[in-house]
Amino acid sequence: MTPYPPIERWQVPEKVCELSRNAVQPAGHAGCESGVFWLGRRAAVSEVAVVVHPVGDGVEETPFSWSVGPEVYAAITAWAKPRGLSLLAVVHTHLSPLPPRMSPTDRRRGLKTPGALAVIIPNGGVEPDPRRWGWFVYENDDYRRVETAELQARVAIVPGAADFVVIGDEEAA
Questions:
Q1: Could you tell me if 134 and 145 are in contact, meaning their C-beta atoms sit under 8 angstroms apart?
Q2: 9-168 adopts what CATH topology?
Q3: All structural domains of the chain with their residue ranges
């Protein structure tokens, strides 16, 4: 069995989008990029169940990038693995209100897991409509944009709940 079973569809509860925006907007208002991780059980239909907001040491929010160090990934993995959860998407902001596109840094330093999503919320996380976010999937050693028709077919924004977890120095949140 492959460690990365193919994902045909992603189910993203509306609450996941709301929690994600709420987590990244403070940095956006301060003129910096930020981000969160979406976790769930990887399957043909993968539902995002948890929004993880990394904070503190190992997390950098700057006007031009958001990054997390290996120790942060390790802490997220240590929390997620016993719960049977996998990283399904990395979500981060760009400050521009323009339609999001992946920067060279996003492509070079982003998560490189087959079938994982990279989601970019424009305008510092203010954009409320997930259909206006940038959706990219990692395939064949690169990211490609998930265009409108495919987005409608493969990403379902659905009613539902989600958990929110802060990992790192909570005083930094």
A1: yes
A2: Cytidine Deaminase; domain 2 (3.40.140)
A3: 9-168
